[in-house]
Specification:
The complex is a heterodimer of chains A (111) and B (114). With 111 residues, chain A is an all-beta fold. Helix content of chain A is 0%, strand content 60%. Chain B is built from no helices and eleven strands. Classes of the chains: A mainly beta (111), B mainly beta (114).
Chain lengths: 111, 114
């Protein structure tokens, strides 16, 4: 089983739609959680951290369920510019910190 | 967040040769990381570059193939040695910042081995 698993996608949605991505992690010692965005042929960029209480940044809402070892990202009112690959990322403490990247979920937002 | 640059941005190399990739950060950082991202795949950590000590390699990666230098707190190099077409990939360096150890990446080096 992979340490971080995501919906493979691709998700094809029209502009204005709401789309949700899911991610599960296997190691209960995981400490911190993130969503990254990666555009085609570019480096990953931090979209938002994910906190236990859930957090929102504009159209983006991230939630964490430690009991189920589950993370989600909700995008409301999708824009064409949201088209990208979304990576679920988990830091786990193994002496230091080890960062594990999910395989990513492709999102295509169409007009 | 730190500003990270990498050189070269891309290269096409012949098998059997070696390429050294440079990573420069605009601030001092304790640890720098080198990742590989093969086509259609997610990121795989190659090694952690520590200033003043040898790099720490992940399972499946060895120093002879991927020697790393870390001469100071703002710079690191990764060499891809004796390249084969299977080494064709994007190589990314990153640094950790923030209370939650968020990672920030350089723009990557796109390597094609013929």
């Amino acid at each position: 089983r992979k340490e971080v698993e995501q919906d493979p996608g691709p998700f094809n949605v029209p502009e204005g739609a709401t789309v949700a991505f899911n991610c599960t992690y296997s190691n209960s010692a995981s400490q911190s959680f993130f969503w990254y965005r990666q555009d085609c042929r570019k480096e990953p960029k931090l979209l938002m951290s994910v906190y236990s209480s859930g957090n929102e940044d504009g159209r983006f809402t991230a939630q964490l369920n430690r009991a189920s070892q589950y993370i989600s990202l909700l995008i409301r009112d999708s824009k064409l510019s949201d088209s990208a690959t979304y990576l679920c990322v988990v830091n786990m403490r193994t002496g230091g910190f080890k960062t594990i990247f999910g395989a990513g979920t492709r999102l295509f937002v169409k007009a | 967040s730190a500003v990270i640059s990498q050189k070269p941005s891309r290269d096409i190399c012949q098998r059997g040769t070696s390429l050294t990739i440079q990573c420069q950060v605009d601030s001092q950082v304790t640890m720098m990381f080198w990742y590989r991202q093969q086509p259609g795949q997610s990121l795989t950590l190659i090694a952690t570059a520590n200033q003043g000590s040898e790099a720490t390699y992940e399972s499946g990666f060895v120093i002879d193939k991927f020697p790393i230098s870390r001469p100071n707190l703002t710079f690191s190099t990764l060499t891809v040695s004796n390249m084969s077409p299977e080494d064709s990939s994007i190589y990314l360096c990153s640094v950790e910042e923030g209370l939650n150890n968020e990672q920030f990446f350089g723009p990557g080096t796109r390597l094609t081995v013929l």
